[in-house]
Amino acid sequence: MLITRRSLLVGAAVLATAAGCSNGGGAAPSSAASSAAAGGAGGDVGVFTWWADGSEKEGLDALIALFKTKYPKNTFVNLAVAGGSGSNAKAKLASDLANKNPPDSFQGHAGAELTDYIDNEQIEPVDDIMKALGGASVFPQTLLDLITVGGHVYGVPCDIHRANMVWTNSGLLSKAGITAPPATVAAWIADLQKVKASGVATPLSIGGTWTQTELFESVLAANLGSSAYTQLFSKGGKWDAAGVKQSITDYATILGYANTVSDGDDWPAATVMAADGKAAYNLMGDWALAEFTSKGLTWGKEYSSFPLTGNGEQLFGFLADAFTLPVGAKNAGGAKDWLNLVGGAEGQLAFNLKKGSIPPRTDVPSSSFGEYQQKTMTSFKNDKIVPSIAHGAAVSLAWSSEINTAMSAFYQSRNADALQSALVAAHAKYAA
């Protein structure tokens, strides 16, 4: 099936590539790359995302402002639905697509998640747009592979994110006597205990279910290593293995140091807890960067971050956002204008500067970004790439939904055997 092929491409092909996300400096983005010929038809352009809060909204706002300038005949219609990682938005989108009422473009995660829309014939190829934007000459081929089926490209990537980042409050770690990032999950658990012993009531801040899935996948990848973790999403994946059971045990221990949350609690509040000194740690994708920045804090001083790692590997928890051209879009010409903007160098610079991500295009100069994003660009070139479960790179929407349901049940019960059985069952149902 398509899902397996796509999942393995993330874990293997991206791992093998040396393609960078930046040229390491150099010329500013060219206007030709940022505004390739498109529809230009004018009228309303309805764009569906889940970027309704925090740095995500700031990034979208930057794109909207640029869109109004470059395509003044068009009127941007913001169809964003709140809910981090799109848990609420995807349900609304599924209903709209099923009822033949698609937006003009919608956000999806590059990787296995796009296969649901392709298999259901809900999105069209965008080969002409990607060719005009430069194709493989400016986008890493391995990223293009994730959005290509049957020789056709089905999305325009606008960012690359790292999901397995642990954000830290420097003052609280200093108080606990912690001076270096942990090398393993076990070492991180020991540090959580040190923070607790230092008098911090909540060593780790978490949000609702999808943030817990992101935390668990990071523990799982760190414990298993990149190869064994990636194999979990193949037909022969061993979710009943001892390493998975140990990861569940470790995850349960980690939750014991966290705040109490409900399913629908989103990520910004959890990240702000670390920024405000109410928690020492918060595991969150690097969209968290802008939350700290908005507080006037400087990375490497008042706060810092490290990727959760283990087995002697540096791991890059991979996800990427892409925009699509839905079948039956009311304003396909305006949608193509939007796709050219988000796929162009100028749009990717404006967007990623705000969102904390890095641009997929290799012609956006790294010198335009701050220290954290420059380090992320280097990490994407050099580290072991592991696909995110929570963000659609590793599994389909249906598979992800079952995992999230199991994670929610585990948060209430802490029944390790039940969680592992649910993960085994989901794999048997969806892996090909």
From TrEMBL:
**UniProt cross-references to InterPro entries, sorted A to Z:** TAT_signal
Q: Does the keyword Transmembrane helix apply?
A: no
Task: Using the record, list the residue span of the signal peptide; answer none if the entry has no such feature.
Answer: 1-27
Do the record's keywords include DNA-binding? no
Going by the entry's taxonomy, the superkingdom of the source organism is recorded as Bacteria
Q: Which UniProt keywords apply?
A: Signal
Q: Which SUPFAM superfamilies match?
A: Periplasmic binding protein-like II
User: Could you tell me what this protein is called?
Assistant: Sugar ABC transporter substrate-binding protein
What species does this protein belong to? Propioniciclava flava
